[in-house]
Structure formats: C-alpha cells, structure tokens
Design brief:
Subunit structure: Homotetramer.
Number of domains: 1
EC number: 2.7.4.-
CATH superfamily: P-loop containing nucleotide triphosphate hydrolases
Mean pLDDT: 93
Keywords: Kinase, Transferase
GO molecular function, one term: polyphosphate kinase activity
Helix content: 40-55%
CATH architecture: 3-Layer(aba) Sandwich
Family: Belongs to the polyphosphate kinase 2 (PPK2) family. Class I subfamily.
Structural class: alpha/beta
C-alpha cells in the first residue's frame, strides 16, 4: 500500500473536492446508474458488488451515493448482522449465498464473506486455521459465482491512519453518527497493523484474474465515490435501453365531487 498511502498523505481539507463539484459530477453518473438498472432488468443480468475496508473508510457513503436514485427492488443492499448460533454451525459462506443476485438484480454487500479474512481473523472470532482455510476456498467459491453468470466486482476502500482517526473522532461528537461507533470499532481501531497484515493476506489469496480486487483511495470521500461509480460503470457492459416517451394522461373531471368538510389533523407548519 505504499503507493496509495503516499497519495493519501498529501490530501488536505483544502484539496478535497467541494460539495458543489461533487454534485456536478455525481448527477450524470446517477443518470447512468438508472440506465444500468433498466438494462439489468430488461436483459436479466446478475451483478454482485462487494465493498470492504477498515472502519470509517467510507463504504456506507459510497453505497448511498450509488443507490439513492435507483430502485431498491433492483439495487439490493445486504449488510448482515452477527451470525446466529445456527449460522455459526453452517458452512461459512452458506449464509451469504441466498443473498446473491437473481436475474434482473444488483446486490451490493456492505461487508461480505470477507469478514472471515478481516474482522473475524483479527478479533479472534475464528481460529487461524479457519481463516487460512477460508482464504484457500474463497477463489473456488468466487469462480463458481462468476461461472454462474454473475458479474462480480470487489472494491477495497483504503483510508489512512490519520483520516480514520479524524472520522471516528467525529462520530463521538456528532449525534447523527454516534450509532456508527460500536465497541468493536474501538477495539479494532487499536489493531491497525493486524488489519494491514490480514488485508495483505486477503489480497494475496483472492485477487484473481476472474474476481480481482480494485482499491479506491478514500481519504477524500467524495472523490472516492465518484471514482468507484465511474469504475463500475466502465466495467459493466450495459447499454441504454429504449424507453417509450412518457406523457401524462388527462385527469378526470370532478363530476360533482366536493372536498369534505372534515376536521383534518394537519402537521404543524413550523418551517
């Protein structure tokens, strides 16, 4: 990560993309995401996008930027909770498989089966042998996923130590974000280099030609979102689907209808 880290170290608040610039670039990309959605539905394509990265790397904001203007029935976000006792007894990837896309769906994993390579390995939720076995098996699983016709894209958001600290500290003082800061986040924060070693082992084992990892430098969250959306739009061979011109029909005539004299309970207009 030396090359990426050197790029991050030079990012200051002054250098970061302004919100005005960000929205100017994001809007046409979101139009393209709608075109992608229509193509997926019409052609029955299946797309799976995996987002991984350290706490505070910007996964949630990136996923929101992708999904905020499209249909949740086509773009499904999967963020699984901690496994139940029953799920712990299953084959590890078993609980993820039912969430893979069917025809006409785009599934986005906000963390995925790679939990075993990251948080579970670092925090001791699995044994070292289980982690090593997972890394040996995951290319086989992903080959099967790709061979089934699913387009699989895997993104790692790379954040610097300094920027992660700034973001996590912001969660402590911001009442809108405090829910994002869990006890596990605090424990994992202190184990930066354990996560680095786990990340490196994950890349070495699962960065394959049929399911490669793509790294997005995310110290500037807005630039990272734009770069990722632009990248996935380029990697998916979608086409614009012809749609019929929409014209609003004429409204019916009232035919004697009158508004009722009913004591509606209106919301107070405080603004």
């Amino acid at each position: 990560m030396t090359k990426h880290q050197s790029k991050q170290d030079g990012v200051s608040e002054r250098d970061k993309l302004s919100n005005k610039q960000y929205l100017r670039e994001l809007t046409p990309m979101q139009v393209e995401l709608v075109k992608l959605q229509e193509w997926v539905v019409q052609t029955g394509q299946k797309i799976c996008i995996v987002f991984e990265g350290r706490d505070g790397a910007g996964k949630g904001g990136t996923i929101k930027a992708i999904t905020e203007r499209v249909s949740p029935r086509v773009f499904r976000v999967v963020a699984l909770p901690a496994p139940t006792d029953r799920e712990k007894s299953q084959m590890y990837v078993q609980r993820y498989l039912p969430h893979l896309p069917a025809a006409g769906e785009i599934v986005i994993f906000d963390r995925s089966w790679y939990n075993r390579a990251g948080v579970e390995r670092v925090m001791g939720f699995c044994t070292e042998n289980e982690a090593v076995s997972f890394l040996k098996a995951v290319p086989l699983v992903e080959r099967a996923i790709v061979h089934s016709g699913i387009i699989l894209l895997k993104y790692w958001l790379e954040v610097s130590e300094e920027e992660q600290t700034r973001r996590l500290e912001g969660r402590i003082t911001d009442g809108r974000k405090v829910w994002k800061l869990s006890g596990m986040d605090l424990k994992s924060y202190s184990r930066w280099y354990d996560y680095s070693r786990a990340r490196d082992a994950m890349f070495e084992a699962s960065d394959t030609d049929f399911a490669p990892w793509f790294v997005a430098v995310s110290d500037d969250k807005r630039r990272a979102r734009l770069n990722i959306i632009s990248d996935l739009l380029q990697k998916i061979p979608y086409q614009t689907v012809a749609r019929e011109k929409v014209t609003l029909p004429a409204r019916q005539k009232p035919n004697g209808y009158k508004e009722p004299d009913y004591p509606f309970k209106y919301v107070a207009e405080r603004f």
